[in-house]
Design goal:
Layout lengths: L16 H18 L14 E4 L6 E4 L3 E4 L2 E3 L13 E17 L7 E4 L4 E7 L7 E10 L14 H11 L6 E5 L3 E9 L4 E2 L2 E3 L5 E2 L7 H16 L7 H29 L7 H13 L2 H13 L3
Parallel strand pairs: 4-12
Antiparallel strand pairs: 1-2, 2-3, 5-8, 5-9, 5-10, 6-7, 7-8, 10-13, 11-12
Helix pairs in contact: 3-4
């Protein structure tokens, strides 16, 4: 898939989470300063409880002092291993190892995802290092052993990890020369059936935590936030209940379509049916031969279901 084939400047972007949050934080602070009578923030103050009030009276938020609001948006989801289990949940018994690799002879701007028997392995291009060396963000998913604290990657040295990666990756990815310290995350599906509960709305990982096989968790969360903002732009408190119900209904196809797609792909790595790898290969070859279908898939992954 190429950006020019889809008429866009890029298929996606890779940046650090800190850089993204910093921009959003600065934008919020500037907006807050321009409307001090309307906006205020208390970053870093934990919320002990969010309680629904009777009828359509809103919510009460306890953050040391109980305060009353028309609406509460829960956007702090955390990671699968630390979450309370929601209505729809599944432990994939996989671990994602995340870090950065340094490459030689890499194809500039090329993102690669390799579907291995253990799980997906993805390299996402980053800006070159100060010395000009090519770098990529890596997500390496493997099957966990019976002891969830151990897996096949955990026992390897950095030199061994580099050797395995160079065996798994295609030639176009380049040669892995170095690897950063890796972080490890347990993988699972954990989703709410409903986004709205009275005057409480959940978005992002607080609404759905997905397997990273398609890299869609952040995209889906950003669309949750964007559509909520659009819905609230001209809302009145008296209309809030009906507005939130319409929003939940409108978000359904995008949410559940992406949840189903990532869940199917993640579960398929555990299947060991005879002939399945060949069937998957034929399916990908067929997709490559049908530009219209491939373009529809790219549009879905970039922009969601509209």
């Amino acid at each position: 898939m190429r950006a020019k084939d889809e008429g866009v400047s890029m298929l996606g972007a890779v940046l650090s989470y800190g850089a993204l949050v910093s921009c959003l934080h600065q934008a919020w602070q500037a907006t807050e300063m321009s409307s001090p009578h309307r906006l205020h923030s208390r970053f870093g103050q934990p919320v002990a409880e969010v309680r629904k009030l009777a009828g359509d009276a809103g919510v009460e938020v306890d953050a040391g002092i109980a305060e009353r609001f028309d609406l509460a948006v829960v956007a702090e989801g955390g990671v699968f291993a630390d979450q309370a289990r929601k209505a729809v949940t599944h432990d994939y018994r996989q671990t994602a190892w995340v870090g950065t690799v340094t490459l030689a002879s890499a194809t500039p701007g090329l993102a690669i995802e390799r579907f291995t028997r253990e799980g997906p392995l993805a390299l996402l291009p980053l800006r070159a290092a100060a010395d000009g060396a090519a770098r990529a963000s890596m997500v390496w998913c493997v099957t966990s052993e019976d002891d969830p604290g151990r897996d096949t990657v955990a026992a390897l040295t950095d030199a061994q990890r580099i050797a395995v990666l160079n065996q798994l990756l295609p030639e176009q990815a380049g040669q892995v020369l170095a690897i950063s310290p890796l972080k490890r995350f347990a993988l699972g599906l954990n989703a709410e059936r409903k986004l709205v509960d009275g005057a409480i709305v959940r978005i992002g990982n607080a609404a759905q935590t997905l397997h990273p096989v398609a890299g869609q968790g952040l995209n889906l969360g950003l669309r949750d936030a964007a559509e909520l903002v659009q819905a609230l732009r001209h809302a009145k408190p008296a209309d809030l209940g009906a507005l939130l119900r319409r929003l939940e209904w409108a978000r359904g196809p995008d949410r559940w379509g992406m949840i189903a797609a990532t869940d199917f792909l993640a579960r398929s790595f555990t299947w060991r049916w005879p002939g399945l790898p060949a069937a998957c290969g034929l399916g990908l070859a067929a997709l490559q031969a049908m530009p219209a279908l491939k373009s529809a898939l790219a549009q879905q992954m970039m922009f969601g279901r509209r």
